[in-house]
Amino acid sequence: MPSLFRRNPSHPAPAPASGDDLFDEAFQQRLEYLALVSRRVFTGRQRADRRSRRIGSGIEFADYRQYAPGDDIRQLDWNVYGRLGRLLLRLYEEEEDLSVYLLIDCSASMAFGQPSRLDYARKLAAALAYVGLSRLDRVSIHAFAEGAAQRLAPARGRHRIFKVFEFLRGLEPSGGTHLAEGLRNFAARTKRRGVAILISDLYDSHGFEDGINQLRFARFETYVLQLTADDELAPRLNGEVELQDAESGELVRVTVTPAVLERYARQLTEHRARVERFCKSKHVPLFTLEVATPPETAVLHMLRRGGMVG
Known about the structure:
The protein has 310 residues and is an alpha/beta fold. It is built from 10 helices and 12 strands.
């Protein structure tokens, strides 16, 4: 599927909304409600969901092992010694923090839509981040396009949401899409594994599959959020038009007829089916989100269905 086209370069795509418009007080209140509801969604989940297989100084008993010189005698089980005459050390399971990585495609095609897909991605990322921060997960954000990347370091605690807002406000759509390059670099630089949530339109001339595989092969728990817009499903075009590729800048003159629109719709449907088939075959949860859907509604739906954070 090629990058999306804009009609006539003299009519550029709408500029992304300002950060203040995106993260106003009303939006912040909705985030607080979302965090509250998300806690109810996860009520009854075992803390063992996050428990690592490592043995350490946690509070959940795991096993015994024979005492060896140099071991901490405070961990000896004196009751066992009294009954069996054996020096056995109590072992406990450690509980790990969950690391959540929000991976945002900032290529030029993300400027498409009303609101733009990047504006929607920023609000979606803010909502997911707030849920994670509220649950004391380690949340970080990585934004990328072809040849460029930005990163917000891991943070914990809901008060860090303002750092998240500040980072997201600075993101702008530019450059081409190269998911494999961006996600390969992310995986190579990120030693701590966790949940990786890719937010993208998945319009990549190199193919989206290799990018998602970069996360899978690096053993991240991977989720894909594919963003769509109403006007890409049914473009309001007719007659002779000049289109400009949103990423390459290439100009194309097209005579738009019902047959052309039908062929376009068929290719778009095939692309989406290809995404769905690939994710299903690789057991990667896929959420296709229309940018007209309130982000907090989309996040709540995803949490109920997939539990990607928490």
